Each structure stands twice: as structure tokens, then as C-alpha cells.
Amino acid sequence: MIAVGSLCASSAALLGLISAFKQGQRTIGIATDANRIAMEYGRAQARAYVVVQSVEAKLSELGDLTAKVTFQNSGASPARRLRWLYNAHIVAVYGDNTRRGMMLGDQPDLERSHWRQDIPSADSWTSYPLGLRSQDGVAALLEKATFVAITIKVVADFQDVFGETHREIACFEGRVNPSERDASYTALHSAHDNALDDKTESPAA
User: Fold this and answer.
1) C-alpha angle 179/182/185, rounded to 5°?
2) 181 three-state secondary structure
3) pLDDT, tens digit, for every residue of 83-113?
4) Short-list 86, 168, 200, CA closest to 132
């Protein structure tokens, strides 16, 4: 009887140890998750946040498009190695209210970008003018047009201080007046992120 009692006591102790071990594992898991969440929250609070603040563009009578983009870092740390490219869609409206559209530039491939710009915390940076390669047919599209509108899609990415890469996509649009090469830039208005895709899917494209 003593042996049976000892066995029962040993089994109960073992079960208690197993239960304590499992509880400890659960506690460790909870603590690990809490630490991970705290670390992610800390990084979210500390990292850079870059947005496209504004876009200015000008279009020559020959159909050459040039744009300047201003980026703003509203985060608490610098944004590193920002790179960007853009493409555009142009719509010309004529006196009889007919419309014709055309894409300008290829889909942005950031691996082909030559920009590598750092932006300090709570600061802005305006790019140098970047032109798109001239395309056949743009000058003819602009000829005799009474109204010309353009939509620009900017694609950018940057690294935060933790080495993570973040992507930003923004569209801007507005009316432009084809003019001489030395004309001033026109400020475009912010549009929703899929504005250029919507234009290319429309009948005017």
C-alpha cells in the first residue's frame, strides 16, 4: 500500500511538473508575443514615412513631358536611398468634343532609377526635373487640341533605418498647356492611387 501511495504521489508530482512546464511555455509565448508587438510598435513609431507631397509638370508643343516631384518624410528618422520614376497618360480634347488619349513612358521599373536620395526626418526634398523619352504621335495628338489634361503616376521606394524597404505610389493630374521648353511648370492636383489605371482602361486610351 505504501508503494502504491508513493507511486500515486510521484505521478501527481510529475503531472504537476508537466502542468507547470506547459504553463511556463505559455507564459514565455505570451511574453515573446508582447515583446514582438512592442518592438514592431517601436519601429513603427521610429521609422521614416515618405509621401509624394506635390508634382509639377510641363509639356512642350512637341510632346516632351518633364516633371518635378517633392517628397516629404514625416517620420521620426531619415529615409534612405529613395528612388523614383513615373509614367503618364495624356488626353487631348478637340473642338468637336472628341477625345484622344496616349500613354507616355513605360511602366516604372525602379531598378532602372538613378536616384538615391536620403531625406532627413521632418524634411522635404524636390527632385531635379526628369523628362520622359519622346514618343511618336504625341505632337500630332496635341495639334489643334483645345484642352489637354495629364495624369502622372509616381512610383518610389526607400529604406528606413532598420533596413526595411517601403513603396509609395501616388497619382497627380491636371490641365496643362503645351508651350515652349522654357515655360514654367504647372502644379498638378492629387488624385487617387489608381487614377492612371482608370485612364488607360477608358475608351480615350
Assistant:
1) 70
2) coil
3) 999 999 999 999 999 999 999 999 999 999 9
4) 86
